[in-house]
Amino acid sequence: MGIFKLFSGFLILLCIIFLTETHQTTAKDDKIIHIYQLQKGNFSIKVTNYGATLLSLLVPDKNGKLEDIVLGYQNIEEYKNDTTYFGAIVGRVANRIGGARFCLEGKCYKLFANDGNNTLHGGKVGFSDVIWSVKNYQKDSHITFTYNSFDGEEGFPGNVIVEVTYQIIDTNKLRIKMVAKALNKPTPINLISHTYWNLAGHANKYGILFHRLQLNAQNYTPVDSNLIPNGQIKSINGTYYDFQTSQMIGSRIQKVPGGYDINYVLVDSSKGKHLIKAAVVEEKKSGRMMELWTNQPGIQLYTSNKISRIKGKDGAVYRKYAGLCLETQGFPDSVNHPNFPSQIVNPGQIYHHIMVYRFTANY
């Protein structure tokens, strides 16, 4: 038994070494999990075709020191058992669907309830838990993952082709483009990037409480005790949800039951331009600043409220408020609220979701 355990451990070590190599898959090994690196200068990311997941992002601080500012696990096996959705692309419909059901064109669909009586982030096996194919890969530029979602997957109607492209631009910008095409039936589509950020470094013991945040939003969508929107759109003025001006996240977080986990209605100030600035995050000690642009109507602010002593990369232990999620999106549960912007994509139509992150440091 001791020899068997030693041999098994050796095999696992070989797998980890293999997975840290960056190379392109072929049609024959679509079901094999790989890790890929994109790099320009000292700006680099690592992604995997498991869940089309962002594993790491290295960017310099004000002194030029490189640090990984994305929370995650040490190896791929841990992502398979993950309940935090670290870095994953989430779908077919991200966030929550109340009652795990919706009706469309006179037909009602029952979904898998994986969050009490509700559906969360696509169901039991959403896009974050499947192995994507690789369409193309250029180490100094971009990588595109593809996935064919079948009719009835997790209860959702219709066949859907999905593509996600990670692209590094210059030496400080990351662009994520999510595209989906409904093939044969109308269906809801709402994809998000569920990355947890900590601009001081993923292992920073103070979490994100000292980060400053500004959101381009004047309203939010209130929720019930199960975090399902009640259909209202309310002003954030005079509330602890107000980040119209830059505020330290930890300054008011104790006033919000459980911490921040809410959808904001973005102000469309684009004036015909494709993208609008959604958020700005700053961390004073490192000098790092992250700006986020998108073409989506909403953004979910989540402050890692449910994280509790999770063993992460490099021996780090993540606790409550360890990271910050800024998930640009359609409104949660929009399939059950006709007054919310529609997420329904009809056959032949294309769903486009674009995010652009710009990283700088105050020298």
Question: If you had to describe this structure to a student in words, what would you say it looks like?
Answer:
This protein is mostly beta strands. The chain contains two helices and 28 strands. The strands form eight sheets. It has a nine-stranded antiparallel beta sheet, with no helix packed on it. The chain has a five-stranded antiparallel beta sheet with strand order 18-17-20-23-26, with no helix packed on it. A hairpin with a 3-residue loop joins strand 12 and strand 13. The radius of gyration is 20 Å and the shape is globular. The N terminus is likely disordered.
List low-confidence stretches.
Answer: 1-29
Say how many strands there are: 28
Percent of residues in helices = under 10%
The topology string of helices and strands comes to HEEEEHEEEEEEEEEEEEEEEEEEEEEEEE
* Main sheet: strand order: 10-11-12-13-28-22-21-16-19
What's the oligomerization state?
Answer: single chain
- Estimated structural class: mainly beta
User: Can you count the helices?
Assistant: 2
Strand content: 35-45%
Task: Let me know the largest β-sheet.
Answer: 9 strands, antiparallel
Anisotropy-based shape: globular
